[in-house]
């Protein structure tokens, strides 16, 4: 692999409109966790799919690596070139919302469109684009699809890959695949969409997407319920599904540790209790015009209280109160950050294994040291953020067990049939985890596909598969 | 490619338990439309994934083709070996429902399980497995997933591929991929599930699947509404979605021609009108415990009548009446069969293009001859079955335009951004259509993937890609 150095840039610049290539500013070399630093010297900022094609053709011919770049919000270092000086290919100029089709529940957007802008365009047409996550103000569609992002609405609407009808992409040799169909049923050969989604830019560059929209729930309701245990949270989810059907948009589990951290580090975040509960669930409903979420939540509370699942609870009485509840949930990661974790893991488990996993993981970790654990997340879809912190009064520099903690959590996750990367992807951070926990036949197939579609290995080298 | 002849069978039989290999009975050589006839001499009937692996290893070593075989219900000849004597690999002995996990909304089943049995196992656990189609009494899970089958519930729940959490499969070289995870979020590398699904057995054999289940709608409602036009049907769907949200399970468009054919060929099928309407919609709701589908349908009828979309309608007052309505819809294909079509196409279109497509296709076809057209289908997801018949009193043998009709319908579909294979797949029937209408970059990528995963081309040779 050759570096995207000044010589290469000088040749490429001839093939592109003015100002398409720039020296890489520091922001292209950083990632949110501050643990990796990219070595790229140049960034390409194409305005059209054709320009993306020109760039990939040149890189492929010159054996120069390319790192596709969206909003730069990824948490696993998929967006930085660390073991070479690959060209950063940023989609930030391709941000058009090309069409919204309310009657079809569809929209076509370029890969550089920011998630919040896509959500807004859908809302303007009285539709919902349901993908929703903390970084939605800066994350871009291309990156979200390439990493198959998750978020809070997966329970109801699925992951990023489930929001896609069609894609346009540039393959590693520069060929443009026009698969931009707005169809719900299309059985004409291998599904390249799903192969590119989740490949984290290692098989090509998504340039445009035809997205599914959803009917916008006419009325919403939010409640914060104190549950007896993780098992009670799952029983509550079952009960809610029987009662309310598909109308549950989010179902988040939170632990007391998260509330304590918030109180300590972000005291302005309003918390509705004197003494925080051990476990709480945030539930959000989105229902049709003629339904009452308030009534549904009241019935759910009454029945779950009766069944001993829920001991206390608040049903939001205003949009402000609903926002306050969400504010707690959304600030938990910031609280964690301010406390400073020893190890943070994004895992998923079969739903029924969650209670036993949580019961087992604490004692297993206790053998490695004295920790505080904040386990929370999108429990409705089995996704836990399992974060381990120093004991009260101690600092993480007192500990030297970060790897051991990670391995302990991952081994346990794997033994319960879970995944060591639920919604964040592999990037560069978890290449070794795939080798450790991945199925050998799958790994062999992945390598064969990578070699077939990107024989020169130019696409995001070092991400997903070791190069 | 070598044939699976007696010499090969004699060698393979040594590696397998008694009675795993049999001479291919006629049923393995036929397909429902009676247009293709397989040449296979031998069928393998493995009992375990390990045996499937043994068989594929032997075939791969000997360069012998393998045709994976489910329920044999496919309509595009994907299940018959016509240009060689490939080994039929039937999953009919691997039918176990291995586990049902109601709290997870998941089930694990072997590939040979019949769809109706999976539906029943889900219902027994008070859950819904939503995939539903005419052949559900004989179609098997492995075939349904490999062909990404559609059906009547796609609008609400998606296609077959959307029902899958994890897969176990045997790859062409005999390696077993264990990807049988019951996870909603798992971002650990390329999505092999979605690559195998829709590949129609050309990249490996699905042996077991972890499936999503859904909460079972507590209450259902069915209505048969007379709509003014296809456009009115789409406007009705929009209105229904705004009003009812996600609760619409099916939304089927039917044309008068279908009712006329039924009256002529199957007069025992009860029809609720004296003179059939030009266009009608069958709508089914499935709602939560505290909702009333009856009320929702009444409101929908009142509002759509007011808006001039619907001129008449019946809301089923009993399960029997709902069944009668569905009976009409489900017998339309049989009525078509008895009349005898010149050409039957399974197409899909962007929803908003449907009215113009229908308005354009009739006059375009009229230039080729005097036809009767029955256009019906899962309009909620853009899937039309577009069937062309001889004029009243004439026979299809009077016509010699079957290919011209097909090309006319397909060209028009393609020009509207549609798909020439919506839910049936490509099989052997539509290999040429993929070459004609498929994107060249996609085709090149498909060929590269096929060569990478199945370098000897043993998997379902002649299906999907020309061999």
Summed up, what is this model?
In chain A, helix 7 crosses helix 9, helix 8 (about 255-265) crosses helix 10 (about 320-340) and helix 11 packs antiparallel against helix 12. Among the domains of chain A are: about 95-215, Uridine Diphospho-n-acetylenolpyruvylglucosamine Reductase, domain 3 (2-Layer Sandwich); about 220-340, Alpha-Beta Plaits (2-Layer Sandwich); about 340-425, Alpha-Beta Plaits (2-Layer Sandwich). In chain A, a hairpin with a 5-residue loop joins strand 8 (about 165-170) and strand 9 (about 175-180).
Beta-strand residue fraction of chain A: 15-25%
Annotation, overall tally of beta strands of chain A: 18
CATH level 3 topology of the domain at 218-339 in chain A: Alpha-Beta Plaits
Euclidean distance between termini CA atoms of chain A: 10 Å
Quaternary structure classification: homodimer
Work out the largest interface and the residue count of each chain.
A-B, 103 and 103 residues
Family (chains A, B): Belongs to the FAD-binding oxidoreductase/transferase type 4 family.
Protein name (chains A, B): Putative FAD-linked oxidoreductase
Keywords (chains A, B): FAD, Flavoprotein, Oxidoreductase
Cofactor (chains A, B): FAD
Key structural traits:
33% helix; oxidoreductase activity (chains A, B); homodimer; FAD-oxidored/transferase_4 (chains A, B); alpha+beta; Uridine Diphospho-n-acetylenolpyruvylglucosamine Reductase, domain 3; EC 1.-.-.- (chains A, B); Alpha-Beta Plaits; FAD (chains A, B); 5-stranded antiparallel beta sheet; Oxid_FAD_bind_N (chains A, B); 467 residues
